[in-house]
């Protein structure tokens, strides 16, 4: 079986130029992931890249098989995951090009399978215990500080902390929704950060979100509202910079075996009842 220690869930812009990338198809009990895993070495680390929306960007946020994606990464050995994503800014000061490393998350999704512990009978017919995962701090504190340092090292002053609200999509927010999110004190809005983060936690993976602001959300601007063209333009302008930061972060993540962060203790005292890959 192929082996990697660090996973990156993001667009093809993050791996397409790497040399000696091997493509690995992984089956999971939850069906196929968004695409093959692309495994390669980066700064001496074995990394598995997974295009979140598929290689041709054909899987919309609400149709992504998040369970299969995280399961596939873990099954090739990944224990630390970096999740770059595009978001809308909910405050005027978080304009396009802002990089925010959130420390909190609000789930406003509606239709997504968001747990591995859903009480389904196991292959042997037994029914697993109920499991409640500790999720007060949804992101890995070690991964967050590594990502922040990597951004500063590339002279990109990141926003340290903030709340990402995740909406169902694929439509953007109405002005009223956006103003409500901003009034609640939340920082950015995205469509993929959940259940990616919680599924990583359920599998004992360290997960770090790196949110690139591509637009001001409807309630924080005065124009026509968010357009897809605008999002793509800003993402294109910043993807090279984000890739550098991401690769520096990969190099700086601690060795897998030295992890002792809260991510590894989410289920202390619980009998999970399922066999993790
Ligand atoms: Zn961690």
UniProtKB/TrEMBL annotation:
Q: Which Pfam families match?
A: PNP_UDP_1
Reactions catalysed:
a purine D-ribonucleoside + phosphate = a purine nucleobase + alpha-D-ribose 1-phosphate
Q: What keywords are assigned to this protein?
A: Glycosyltransferase, Purine salvage, Transferase
GO biological process entries: L-methionine salvage from methylthioadenosine; purine ribonucleoside salvage
Give the E.C. number(s): 2.4.2.1
- Example of a GO cellular component annotation carried by this entry: cytosol
Q: What class of enzyme is it?
A: transferase
Write down the position(s) of the site called Important for substrate specificity: 173, 228
Pathway membership: Purine metabolism; purine nucleoside salvage
What the record says about family reads: Belongs to the PNP/MTAP phosphorylase family. MTAP subfamily.
What does the record give as the function of this protein?
Purine nucleoside phosphorylase involved in purine salvage.
Q: Additional info?
A: Although this enzyme belongs to the family of MTA phosphorylases based on sequence homology, it lacks several conserved amino acids in the substrate binding pocket that confer specificity towards MTA.
Q: What is this protein called?
A: Purine nucleoside phosphorylase
């Amino acid at each position: 079986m192929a082996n990697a220690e660090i996973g990156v869930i993001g667009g093809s812009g993050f791996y397409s130029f790497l040399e000696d990338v091997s493509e690995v198809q992984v089956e999971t009990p939850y069906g196929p992931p968004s695409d093959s895993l692309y495994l390669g070495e980066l700064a001496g680390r074995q990394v598995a890249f997974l295009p979140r929306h598929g290689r041709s960007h054909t899987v919309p946020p609400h149709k992504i098989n998040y369970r299969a994606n995280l399961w596939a990464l873990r099954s090739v050995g990944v224990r630390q995951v970096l999740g770059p994503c595009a978001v809308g800014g909910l405050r005027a000061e978080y304009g396009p090009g802002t990089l925010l490393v959130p420390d909190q998350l609000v789930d406003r999704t509606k239709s997504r399978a968001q747990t591995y512990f859903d009480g389904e009978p196991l292959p042997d017919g037994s029914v697993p215990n109920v499991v409640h995962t500790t999720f007060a701090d949804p992101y890995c504190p070690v991964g967050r500080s590594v990502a922040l340092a990597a951004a500063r090292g590339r002279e990109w002053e990141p926003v340290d902390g903030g709340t990402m609200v995740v909406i169902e999509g694929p439509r953007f927010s109405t002005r009223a929704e956006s103003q409500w999110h901003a009034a609640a004190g939340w920082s950015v809005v995205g469509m993929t950060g959940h259940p990616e983060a919680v599924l990583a936690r359920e599998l004992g993976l360290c997960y770090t979100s790196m949110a690139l602001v591509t637009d001001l959300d409807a309630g924080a601007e005065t124009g026509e509202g968010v357009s897809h063209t605008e999002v793509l333009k800003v993402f294109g302008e910043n993807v090279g910079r984000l890739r550098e930061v991401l690769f520096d972060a990969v190099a700086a993540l601690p060795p897998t075996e030295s992890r002792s962060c809260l991510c590894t203790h989410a289920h202390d005292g619980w009998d999970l009842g399922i066999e993790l890959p």
